[in-house]
Amino acid sequence: MKPGITIFHGDNAQGKTSILEAMCVLLRLQSPRSSALADCILFEKNAFAIGGNLVTDAGDESDMRMQYSSGGRKLLIDDEMQKRSADYINHSALVVWMANDDLALVRAGGDGRRRYLDFMASQLFPTYRPALRAYDKAMRSRNFLLKRDASPKWPEIDAYTKILADQALIVTRIRRELLTKLTPFAEQAQRTISGRDEKLGIEYLSKSGENDDLAAELLSRRSEEYGRRITVAGPHRDDFTMVINGRPAAKFASEGQQRTLALALKLAQTELFLSLREQPPILLIDDVFGELDVTRRNALMNAWPKTSQKLITTTNLDWLDGDFSGAARVEICDGIATIA
Amino acid sequence: MAQVDYPEPVKVLIAQLKRLPGVGPKSAERIAVWLMQRGREMTGPFSEALEKAGELVLECGTCGFFATAEKGCAICDGLGRDDSVMCVVEQPTDILPLERSGAFRGQYHALRGKISPLDNVGPEDLRIGELVARLKRGSYSELILALSADVEGEATSNYLVEVLGQVGKELKITRLAQGISVGGGLESVDELTLFRALEGRVGM
Fold it and tell me: Per residue in A239-253, is it b (16+ CB within 10 Å) or e — as a string?
């Protein structure tokens, strides 16, 4: 790929998004579209592998490879096996993913917003991924125990409650810190794109109870857990709200404001990465351009870091103009890429 | 024409070897052929050793370590051990590294696993009842939990603390510290370990 802009074009269902997703998985070991890597395996197959060359601005080149199967995964940098995924990821580049369904960040349920936070936090805070994984495992075990017995065995369940509470504290603390750092960038982006003095407020909503004391919260809601047989509180239910000029954006903002906000959140992520790390993030932009109006398109192009590599998919090329004269083009047809 | 294959006894041997941990079909075949090619000189002592180990080695009913009927358990029947502290481990094989460290001369108790509901392992599958009985019988002042530092290991530790809290108020329950391994630089330590090491720092 060339350093600047590369455009992947082709009809629907030819494999454009899959190429972007593969790059994302290779660089970050996670997909922005799915929480389980197993979902990335082709139907009727049992493994996948991705490889690529990463070249930094300084010109350092390294060969990155990942192999994944139900039996485990292998990570290689320059043919050297990486035992810990943290070593592999630290060597890699930061990624910002933009897609058409970003609007769901504003409109839909908390799932997408948590995924947005998780994707960002895993890239910035090395303790986040292990904490989230341990939390997830403890919660699955706990839910299993809640469902297993007619009369729940609380000593066994509470052996997991403690782990859940410890990891929840790490997860919640990092997410809060992240949002605090992100908000000024999001506010700035919202103003720039809308061209109006819109005031944006973002607030984290913890479902871990008072002072984020999840152990105490779960203890006080024992009868509810007895009834529902599921872990009723914790970061897996946390969310954040966005308010424009004092009104909740999900309900009261116009469609235009919502689209602006969704874009602002992603631009804020880019700005945050730039301010915290020296290396500009790689922008993976899936099918966004065809949908943007001129104002937002220009806002996006003015705001994205000049030094970032941008990889863009699109079905039509109508919107291409002089700004993209230097862009490389790749046509995707039935999973085969042809460089123009 | 029928396909030519190894004679039946070799096939049986390969099938048995394949059941060993970490041995796949290829390795099983290689080991079997290697044994066959060396003949009775190799297979005689080998099968005798296998036979004896299977016949004579028992699990110590007290601590769970390996024992023989003839000599008993090297730990429980050993002399000069501190009967006031006990160390709980997952597997009997975890006892040996602790012994080699020379830092501990008390009693041991191997649970033979850890709680993992998703793998269908519950407290009733572990030697927890035996542990409670031992603690009630003896006069222990400290119980050291030396289980693995993953989710299941920690859940097992938490569960033991809950269950054993009722055994006696005099019993002090501790767990191993977590931190940086000796002889390593900071650059090779993962962040979570570093985090725990900082939390557990000691004055100098």
Answer: bbebbbeeeebbeeb
